[in-house]
Amino acid sequence: MTFVVTENCIKCKYTDCVEVCPVDCFHEGPNFLVIDPEECIDCTLCEPECPAEAIFAEDDLPGDQAQFKQLNAELTKIWPVITEKKDMAPDAKEWDGKPGKLAALER
Asked: How wide is the angle at C-alpha 29 spanned by C-alphas 58 and 69, nearest 5°?
């Protein structure tokens, strides 16, 4: 099993989760993070660290977020690994919890 970053991370992109990952499975895009399903060891450390509550175990993935499992796998192939926490975006709190952010995803 793996963990999946979902829509609420878009334009929030808090990076608290990357610091606790023991296998460096997070990859960073312009305004979103993804988890490499091949590297994730299901340690559960990242999920409680996400201030936006955007990380789910694949078995607990809400139905309306199912497409993010494939999206995480796809984007890990093109985005670089991130291993250190960065400052959050200045408008991250404004975007946290807003629905329909998939259209705002920058590749």
From this structure: 15
Task: Express each pLDDT in 76-95 by its tens digit.
Answer: 999 999 999 999 889 999 99
Type of residue at 34: V
Q: Is 58 in contact with 35 (CB distance < 8 Å)?
A: no
Tell me how far CA of residue 8 lies from CA of 23, 50, 57, 62, in angstroms. Answer: 23, 10, 15, 12
Q: How far is CA 21 from CA 17, 33, 50, in A?
A: 7, 13, 12
φ, ψ for residue 49, nearest 5 deg: -80, -15
Average pLDDT estimate for 10-26: 96
